[in-house]
Amino acid sequence: RNTEALVDDVNWISGEVPTEPVRVQAKLRYHQKEQWATAYPLEDGNVRLVFDEPIRAITPGQAAVFYNGDEVLGGGTIILDETLHQL
Question: Which CATH class is domain 2-79?
Answer without folding.
Answer: mainly beta
